[in-house]
Amino acid sequence: MDLMGSETISSMEEFLGSETISSILDVDGSTGTCFKSPTPSLTDDGSDLRRGPWTVEEDLILMNYITANGEGRWNSLARCAGLKRTGKSCRLRWLNYLRPDLRRGNITPQEQLLILELHSRWGNRWSKIAQHLPGRTDNEIKNYWRTRVQKHAKQLKCEVNSQQFKDIMRYLWMPRLVERIQADASATSSAKIEPSASLLPMDSANHEFDQMNQNLNPSPEISTTTGSSCDSVGVQLWSAPVSNSCFTDSCAGQTIEHNYGYGAQETQFTESWSDLFTSMCGYNDIGLPDFEMGGLGDNFWNVEDIWLSQ
DNA sequence: AAGTTTCACAACCGCAGGGTA
DNA sequence: CTACCCTGCGGTTGTGAAACT
User: Could you tell me which residue ranges the Myb-like domain spans (predicted)?
Assistant: First the structure.
């Protein structure tokens, strides 16, 4: 397999492009964003295999070899390329870091939405999820999930696999992501920006949610702080529209008016979740389920919105 | 300014499944 | 049949950077 059509690669820049390389290479020329001074160590078993962060030289050797000979057969590849690395290490380095079709940068709201949806369907099947996010690796998605999602499940004192937490994702965060995507799309397509809840400071949005829930279900125990407990989950039936993008088949056709403080917005719910999700993510072949509204607690509205802050 | 905590992510580890000699 | 090897996957760790106190 001739990946690049060139014979050898003399620099990382040549292989990955100047923009990419500047984000990869550190001042001292080492690779990776974590390890400023790679000092690979030898393995403990007495062999001269190296481990730890990869050097630029190793990366170039690996890239040149794969460019010339293709990937696969990693153990022999490592030997033939003269790399004192295990085949596993070479494979990982290539797949997670050096592959030319890797997509770098922040996970976009569309990608976040897709990750949430696919994880709700498949669980921790990271490689399977990654197959549906071109340019993203399973490792990247796994890291995203652990650093963002699990952290906030912990803050909420929810089990990440609990129904409570799944409901939070499905009925709060995912609709907000959709809203964010819509807002971004409309902002780029129109000079006139219609503010939505996701564009407001979270304090403001939370205040609105608190007001709604106070009216619907007055409780002296309503918290307004981040990281509140989920103990009341399921006690209160969810009634207020969280956003103009919170929609299900059950509310299709309804017209709901709500005011986020910058002027009333009127939304016609004519799309099913799966239809809109499909349009959001450009996705149409995974047979998304239709979501139904469930009973959520008031504390959900106070959760710090992790999805909207990059 | 210094120390501490948190975040982000590259890399490693162990295991399972498949292929093959 | 079986032992061995390779590959791929998911869980975990280690590290520097950034944020916070």
Answer: 46-98, 99-149
